[in-house]
Design a protein that fits this description.
11 strands, three-stranded antiparallel β-sheet, 418 residues, 17 helices
Length: 418
């Protein structure tokens, strides 16, 4: 009977602690206030959200533009910063990995900081990310200073001024130092990890949670210890699941009805996933939760993700890049940095075709404009814009045949026909 009581008490005690939230220190080894980047990324919801945000951000190229006096703009390659952001940020990273690391830092630590690599003329020739966890900021005499402790320098801190680093803060109270999402989501992350630990614990030993053993009389100490060793060796663990149990002395095994679904484990795990996705503002279908998704609403949710989640990140990064990576005279000359988001806004083929057709018919897209949007080479005479014949000023008549005849005559004359 003591063996039965031990099983019941152990399972009941664990479930009680789990529901009360007291199992964190005993079973998961973490506390609410001790959640750091490494621990948080072990939670699948956090890992998925950070991955979606960072990879989406990294897919868009950073372009250098120059605005002309007439209001038009053109892509420019005149400045070194174009090559840094578009081709090679430093000797060790490609642009994708560099931008991805920036977003990972922003969505775990709330800040991304890069050391500006400069030549002897103090021109920026590269950017190298610094780990935010190894940085501390301090304001002295009105000047912001960054203290960085690298693993290679052991206890020696390097000091950088504001002009020596490229710092992009996330959401912030003071606009200078970003708030860490991991720190502010610590409770939600801890609870989510606790659910996962509970699931592992629940399934780890089949005999613990699957039923109880009963015997007509009390077992002696020797028989009790032998039964425990036999169960631990031959009947517990995933490898022994479903294996029939041999009992002596009239013993019976009674199946328990406690299931993870009965304990609302699955529902609770889904709620925690939604809670983390809400904090990162990531649609559930992007982290493989399709419970509420349909073919009709996924496209709209994806568009909202670009508009309300990614666009603020792009604008935050662009404005900091323009302020910190371009010189005042370069900004005055019309140079600015902007991410090209066209690929994120592309719909399916049917939607794009309808949009192109409308643009072509109403005169604001040419054939070559459309081909450029589809990454196709231009064609001859593809820059002609059409004008709808019924779009003329009221009270005026347009002689289409006469206009066409005049146009053909003019083209023939330019061709040198006798």
């Amino acid at each position: 009977m003591g063996f039965i009581r031990n099983i019941k008490n152990s399972l009941a005690e664990y479930i009680s602690k789990f529901l009360a939230g007291d199992d964190v220190s005993e079973y998961s080894g973490i506390g609410v206030m001790s959640v750091d980047r490494e621990v948080a990324m072990k939670y699948s919801a956090v890992f998925s959200c950070v991955r979606v945000l960072s990879e989406t951000f990294a897919t868009c190229p950073a372009q250098l533009y120059r605005k002309n006096k007439d209001g038009t703009r053109e892509i420019s390659t005149d400045l070194q910063i174009y090559d840094i952001l578009h081709n090679q940020p430093n000797d060790e990273m490609a642009p994708f990995g560099f931008k991805e690391s920036q977003m990972v830092s922003l969505n775990t630590g709330g800040n991304s900081v890069c050391l500006k690599l400069v030549n002897k003329y103090n021109d920026i020739v590269g950017l190298y990310p610094l780990e935010w966890q190894k940085l501390r900021m301090e304001r002295k005499n009105g000047q912001l200073l960054y203290y960085y402790r690298d693993d290679s320098t052991q206890n020696i801190e390097k000091t950088y001024s504001r002009s020596e680093v490229f710092h992009v803060p996330g959401i912030s109270f003071d606009g200078v130092i970003g708030l860490s999402p991991i720190e502010y989501m610590a409770s939600a992350i801890t609870l989510g990890l606790s659910y996962e630990k509970f699931g592992v614990k629940f399934y780890q030993n089949g005999a613990n949670a699957s039923g109880v053993f009963s015997f007509p009389g009390a077992l002696g100490d020797v028989a009790y210890e032998r039964l425990k060793k036999d169960l631990a060796k031959n009947y517990t663990g995933l490898a022994n699941t479903g294996k029939p149990i041999l009992l002596e002395s009239g013993g019976t095994f009674n199946q328990l009805t406690i299931k993870p679904v009965d304990a609302q484990l699955l529902e609770s795990k889904k709620f925690q996933l939604e809670d983390v996705a809400r904090c990162y503002r990531v649609p559930l279908h992007l982290i493989q939760n399709l419970d509420k998704a349909t073919n009709n609403n996924i496209e709209h949710q994806s568009l909202e993700f670009i508009m309300y989640t990614m666009l603020p990140w792009f604008k935050r990064y662009e404005e900091n890049a323009n302020a910190q990576l371009l010189k005042p005279k370069e900004r005055k000359a019309g140079y600015y940095i902007e991410f090209k988001m066209d690929s994120l806004l592309r719909g399916d083929m049917a939607t794009r075709s309808a949009a192109y057709a409308a643009g072509r018919q109403w005169g604001w897209l040419s054939v070559n404009d459309i081909r450029r949007l589809e990454n196709m080479p231009p064609v001859d005479n593809g820059d002609i814009y059409l004008q709808p014949s019924n779009m003329i000023e009221a009270g005026q008549q347009l002689d289409q045949a006469g206009a066409m005849t005049a146009k053909i005559t003019e083209m023939i004359g330019k061709g040198g026909r006798a």
